[in-house]
Amino acid sequence: MHDDDIANIMRALGHPVRLEILRIMATQQQGQCCCGDVTESLPLAQSTVSQHIKVLHDAGLIERKPHGTRNRYCIRQDRLAELSSAFGGLLKGLAPSAAGKETELA
C-alpha cells in the first residue's frame, strides 16, 4: 500500500461519524446493511449518512452490492488488513532505532 493510499484512508477515518458507521456495519447480521439501517442507528439525516458512506466507499473501505432497488454495503476486510499492516510498518519506521538513538528537540 502506497503512502497516498494510507493518507486517503486515514482522511476517510478522520471523522467520528465514519468510524461509528464502520462499527455499525461490523455488527450487522450477515455483515451487510443499507444506508437506512445505518441511519436508524445515528441521529443524522439520511442524506448526511449517505455522504459519509460515499467517503468510506471512495476510500475503498466498504463495497456496494446491488440488492433489488437498494444498495447494501459491507466492510472490505482485505483493505482493513492491508491498512493495518501498512500502518504498523509506518509506525515501526518512525520509532527510534533499537540502538537507542532517540532525538530530542532543542
Automatic annotation (TrEMBL):
The keyword Nucleotide-binding does not apply. Gene3D superfamilies: Winged helix-like DNA-binding domain superfamily/Winged helix DNA-binding domain (1.10.10.10). Residues 1-95 form the HTH arsR-type domain. Signal peptide: none annotated. Keywords: DNA-binding, Transcription, Transcription regulation. PROSITE patterns: HTH_ARSR_2 (PS50987). CDD domains: HTH_ARSR. InterPro entries: ArsR-like_HTH, HTH_ArsR_DNA-bd_dom, HTH_MetalResp_TranReg, WH-like_DNA-bd_sf, WH_DNA-bd_sf. GO terms for molecular function: DNA binding; DNA-binding transcription factor activity. SMART domains: HTH_ARSR. This is Winged helix-turn-helix transcriptional regulator.
